[in-house]
Amino acid sequence: MARPGAGGALLRRLRVLSQLPPAARGAPLLGLRGPAAAAAAAASASYGTSITSAKIKVNGVPLHYKQTGQGDHAVLLLPGMLGSSQSDFGPQLKSMNKQLFTIVAWDPRGYGQSIPPARDFPPDFFERDARDAVDLMQALKFKNFSMLGWSDGGITALIAAAKYPTLIHKLVVWGANAVVTQEDLKLYNAIRDVSKWSEKIRKRMEEMYGHEYFAKTCEAWVDGISQFADMPDGNICQHLLPHIKCPAFIIHGGKDPLVPQFHAEYLHKHIKGSRLFLMPEGKHNLHLRFAEEFNRLVEDFLR
């Protein structure tokens, strides 16, 4: 049985705990014993593992993000086309090591809960996303951070790592490409009509966006990504790859139906010192289907 007054001490300690910076919240709760200490420790653990959701104005746009963990190593998760923090990174927000990492997953402008504005695809949309992503982390007071980018988010992360080398600690990308080929155009146009998507994925997108916004934005994305095929060599960001100086880890699913393996091999060849890992059974969403293996690989790389 806790001694008299222990409850008051616990409440006072928890109030102090809530005001501490993230890195300090995992510190030992000195002075508490027995049930009071156990309750305080449980509250501390709960605080560190909870997922907060908020918006912050960046470059004139209110950007939505989710944040969890209390580690010193900040990590930004960048979603793919039409993706969001909620739809694209559930297993990472839930299960990545929250003592080592502070994890932020964002919704790029026009995606998820970062609407308005509506999503558009001007020629510099990847550069715009890279600038927004970096400025979001700076607004959240992270001086340096690593980036985990999936698909379009991987392209954004490549650009950010090249253009903001002093800010990016480490880089992980999967399902990403630096050029658009004629083969890619065929794959993109095959998903232009959302009625041909699998019912499971289509339903999830329609629940998030409504059918009209989902269908319209998908078509706009196909047009937006296809414009790079008109650039010399189909260039999106190939010219920036030699400027990536941070450690880089490229993961690719052997059964990815949207991004052929030569893209991953191209990135590996042109990013000096990068690592390439092929997941034979992985598809485009390998971080969701094989979340445990993916999280372990990524955490080992980030340590």
H/E order of the elements?
A: HHEEEHHEHEHEHHHEHEHH
Q: What gyration radius follows from the Cα positions, in whole Å? A: 21 Å
Proportion of residues in helical segments: 40-55%
Low-confidence stretches: 1-47
Name the average pLDDT.
88
> What proportion strand?
15-25%
Structural class: alpha/beta
How far is it from the N-terminal to the C-terminal residue, by CA? Answer: 41 Å
Largest sheet: 8 strands, mixed
Characterize the overall form. globular
Give a quick precis of the structure:
With 303 residues, the chain is of the alpha/beta class. It has helices spanning 6-19, 34-49, 85-88, 90-95, 125-139, 152-163, 182-190, 199-209, 211-226, 261-270, 286-289, 291-302; strands spanning 51-58, 61-69, 73-78, 101-107, 145-150, 168-174, 248-253, 275-279.
Describe the protein in words.
This protein is of the alpha/beta class and 303 residues long. Helix content is 43%, strand content 18%. The protein has helices at residues 6-19, 34-49, 85-88, 90-95, 125-139, 152-163, 182-190, 199-209, 211-226, 261-270, 286-289, 291-302, and strands at residues 51-58, 61-69, 73-78, 101-107, 145-150, 168-174, 248-253, 275-279. Mean pLDDT is 88; it is low at 1-47.
Label this structure with key terms.
303 residues, eight-stranded mixed β-sheet, 12 helices, alpha/beta
Topology:
Blueprint: H1 6-19, H2 34-49, E1 51-58, E2 61-69, E3 73-78, H3 85-88, H4 90-95, E4 101-107, H5 125-139, E5 145-150, H6 152-163, E6 168-174, H7 182-190, H8 199-209, H9 211-226, E7 248-253, H10 261-270, E8 275-279, H11 286-289, H12 291-302
Parallel strand pairs: 3-4, 3-5, 5-6, 6-7, 7-8
Antiparallel strand pairs: 1-2, 2-4
Helix pairs in contact: 1-2, 5-6, 8-9
